Amino acid sequence: MSKFSKLGLRRAAGACAITAVAAIGLASMGTGNAAAAPLANGTKSVSGLDGEKITTKSEFNSQYSVARVANNGLGRTALLSGTFSAEGSEGVSGKLTIYILAGCQVDVSGFSGETGGTLSVLPSPSLTVSGGISLPIAPGEATIQPVSVSKSFDAGSKAYVQLQDFEIEFPNCGGYASARTIAQVMGGKGYEISDDDDTVTGEGTFLKSKLYGQPFFVS
Q1: Helix, strand, coil % in the chain, rounded to nearest 5
Q2: Which pTM does this prediction carry?
Q3: Residue 142 needs a FRET pair 20 to 30 A away by CA distance; which of 81, 102, 168, 177 works?
Q4: C-alpha dist (Å) from residue 156 to 49, 93, 172
Q5: Each residue's pLDDT tens digit, 191-205
Q6: What is the DSSP letter of 219?
């Protein structure tokens, strides 16, 4: 049976079986599920050469565009909710990480979520606020930002990440804004990350896949 080893992947923190991220402040201003626009569910399975399998799901998704108090057309804000899960077949463990792919005056529906292409993709670090993210991007730019939680799953168990009214803010976007979620999963049999040098090791096939959510416009 083959073995894999991969460098440069950061270990994610988190010990809860269910990880939840909630925005504060705006959630109490009449932005409940009744006013939210539903987004499509999704599921994706990947298989390895030795029969390994990981299934990723995205469910109960919705978004709500929040009117800005300044009303000057120079910013956009949305509240995003959804539940993401990852589960491996027998002996398969791994990690689930959620990202936000967003653009200002850019249609992200066909964007692959990689750093190549014709778009101007900003560096990963950005201003992180409590319960959400702020994306200071200009028209024609796009960025991929990690949600500040990841969840590992052991063999035979399932990982969950839940977003509830997670705030996505576009402070400098003068045109329309577009966004979508990316649920990335990595794993394999005997999947393990070294505390010393972040080396990923395991047996069989190393699996990695991305489940893209439905794109939505932020008005």
Answers
A1: 5, 55, 40
A2: 0.78
A3: 81
A4: 19, 8, 45
A5: 887 767 667 888 888
A6: -
Please tell me the class of the 3-218 domain: mainly beta
42-100 pLDDT tens trace: 999 999 988 899 999 999 999 998 866 555 556 778 999 999 999 999 999 999 999 99
Neighbouring CB atoms inside 10 A of 69's CB total 7
Q: How far apart are CA 147 and CA 22, in angstroms?
A: 11
Is-contact 61 82, C-beta < 8 A?
A: yes
Instruction: Tell me how far apart the alpha carbons of residues 74 and 3 are, in angstroms, rounded to a whole number.
Output: 51
Phi-psi region of 202 (alpha: psi -120 to 50; beta: other; left: phi over 0): left
Structure-token pair, residue 214: 């439905």
Q: CA 192 to CA 93: how far, in whole Å?
A: 8
What one-letter code names the amino acid at 102?
A: A
For 127, other C-beta atoms within 10 Å of its C-beta total 11
Residue 24 in contact with residue 31, Cβ under 8 Å? no
**Dihedral angle over CA of 111, 82, 163, 33, nearest 10:** 120
Instruction: Look up residue 172 and give its amino acid.
Output: N
CA distance 187 to 57: 15
Give the 3-state secondary structure of residue 28: helix
Determine how β-strand 76-88 pairs with β-strand 158-170. antiparallel
Longest dimension (CA), the chain: 61
